[in-house]
Amino acid sequence: MLDAVRAAREALATEHLIHPRRRGEREALRVLLTTRQSAVLASTAAINLLKALIIPAPDEVRVELRGMKSKDQVAHCARMRDRPAQNIEHRMTVRALRSAAQRIEALRAEAKELELELLARVRTVAPELLALQGIGPISAAQILISWLHAGRFRSEAAFAAFAGVAPIPASSGLTNRHRINRSGDRQLNRALHTITLIRIRLDPITRACVARRISEGKNARDAQRCLKRAICRHIFKLLERGDQTGTQITAEDHPQAT
What is the pTM of this model? Predict the structure, then answer.
């Protein structure tokens, strides 16, 4: 009884009440993304199986596949026909290679189909995310799943802490520094990390911001963390306010103390 009274008083005193998880579009994105990730993992396992079958295969089979790229090996193995004139080891190896390769192709096709469905759902829910450089349907879907709805997070700092991109002070003596935050939603953190790497590779403004951070004395990893924090802030503002006026992060967007 006392615990219930205490919980009720704390709830009444809280300014920012927690909203329950919404279903609908958010749940649709979650099940599609989870299924696609399962297909990708299964495809990777099937590729590893194919490589493991090729290594001890008969010499004639290995000669056929020698020098081919991985994609070409999969296509070639998927088209292999039965060879009744060969010995039992050769015939069963060919059959196993064909089965593994056809499994890889089926899983890749499934993952691609699910990715297209995710793209369609994201365009319906938050097309402004896809306008940002470096954000594709997979990253956008993960962001929407984690963000959930406007008002879930009381501030962009809370969203950054949830994403694991808010740096943690790790100063000691005369050294003033921050360390990486390993808590939070790791799938959201992974999506932000992917976006950061793509922008560093493709966007000259982003490269200039990273170069400025390095010139200020930060190493490359710390500069990348600053960028990830800035991207997180920009995405949160975009989702919360529906602000579609800008799709690039400028030097002024980057935090000054990270």
Answer: 0.79
